[in-house]
Predict the structure.
Amino acid sequence: MHQIERRVDSAMKNIEQVLAQLEQAADPEQAVKALVLAEGGTWVDPDGTPGIVEIQLAGLRGIGPSVAAAVDDWMQQARTPHHAEHERFA
């Protein structure tokens, strides 16, 4: 197996693990925040000003008009088989 294929397989397993954690979390928004911070990412709590929220976690990006919508978008992408294509370029 080539190095790139191994990285893709590893990233896909990571996405599956994160998705499982979020699906079992009582509060997926807080779970995402904790995971982003644990990965060394930055989290800025929205201040109520209209805008776009972007969450980058495990090589996938969730975008929406609120944290909840961005988390839902991330989870939907993680459930979709095409996320492997995104991983190759992340």
Observations:
- Confidence is low (pLDDT under 50) at residues 1-11.
- Residues 9 and 84 are 9 Å apart (CA to CA).
- Strands lie at 53-57, 60-64.
